[in-house]
Design brief:
Mean pLDDT: 79
Number of domains: 2
Number of strands: 21
CATH architecture of the largest domain: Sandwich
Radius of gyration: 20 Å
Order of helices and strands: EEEEEEEEEEEEHEEEEEEEEE
Number of helices: 1
Helix content: under 10%
Low-confidence stretches: 1-34
CATH class of the largest domain: Mainly Beta
Shape: globular
Length: 292
């Protein structure tokens, strides 16, 4: 993977609400979301190295030559899990080729974006899994929260930020950051829990236009003290992106607290953050979710 390094800076600000709060804002020097490195659009007629574990199965991922999100003549990839037995029973496809290998942390703030359609009878809990070069069966991380793809047979665009806070260790003793710095294999799967294998389900998934995109600059935060134990953190959002406020009692910290649900929209957004536990440092991050 070619390195496309985005510069990141942290700006601390001291606010004047009786010095009760410090505000931490992260911004990046990128104006908008742009494609990085590679796109799997399947227009060449191949599955572009997307596989399942048993290559002899009749249910391997197949390239379909028409009916993608752009309509007639737009190729996409289709995979059906049969939900029983061992071969092709799980909803999971993977890719361990050079096109997805590399140091994701060196790319700066990025996310994984794809078009997906659920053409089967079962709702999908879509997740991304990543392994490092130590060994595909040794160390795995997976997105902590799934993107639910309903059974409506309709194309939708999904965006999953590749940030440490959005992943959890599914197998092994490695840290999330270590895997993100040394990605060797990527999985797309459906799982109710953040595991490293897909659920055994009868399901059909179609996907197209898989790529890494750079994230736009995070908006600046402002804060209003609303009571002795709460504060309103505010920012102006951008359509198509979901945001989350996280907080900590002190810096440096490896234990940020998530505050409220993820929010989206192009108007002023706000989350009420409790401060009785001592949380005084606030940061905004992107979270995953269906975008369209």
């Amino acid at each position: 993977m070619a390195a496309h390094v985005a510069r990141t800076t942290i700006h601390p600000f001291i606010l004047t609400f009786k010095s009760y709060f410090l505000l931490l804002v992260q911004t990046t020097f990128q104006a908008s979301a742009v494609d990085l490195v590679h796109v799997d659009d399947f227009e060449g007629g191949s599955p572009q190295n997307w596989l399942i574990g048993h290559r002899s199965s009749p249910n391997i991922p197949v390239n379909v030559t028409t009916g993608g999100p752009a309509g007639a003549g737009d190729n996409y990839l289709s995979y059906t899990s049969i939900g029983s037995g061992s071969i092709a029973s799980r909803m999971l496809v993977f890719n361990r080729r050079l096109q997805w290998e590399g140091n994701y942390l060196a790319l700066g703030p990025v996310g994984f974006k794809l078009d997906v359609r659920n053409a089967g009878p079962t709702p999908l809990n879509l997740r991304i899994g990543l392994s490092d070069s130590v060994g595909e069966l040794d160390n795995w991380i997976a997105t902590a929260q799934p993107v639910v793809i309903p059974t409506n047979n309709t194309w939708m665009s999904v965006f999953i930020p590749i940030q440490e806070g959005n992943f959890t260790v599914a197998q092994g003793s490695v840290s999330v950051s270590n895997v993100l710095a040394d990605v060797e294999s990527i999985r797309i799967f459906s799982s109710a829990a953040p595991a490293f294998r897909g659920d055994v389900i009868d399901a059909t998934i179609h996907f197209d236009n898989l790529r890494l995109v750079s994230l736009p600059s995070l908006p600046r935060l402002s804060i209003e003290k609303t009571s002795g134990s709460a504060a309103d953190v505010k920012w102006t959002g951008t359509n198509g992106f979901f945001y989350q406020v996280i907080s900590a009692a002190q810096l440096p910290s490896t234990s940020f607290t998530t505050n409220g649900s993820a929010m989206s929209g192009s108007s002023e957004l706000r989350q009420s953050v409790g401060t009785s536990s001592g949380n005084a440092f606030f940061q905004l991050q992107y979270t995953g979710g269906a975008k369209e």
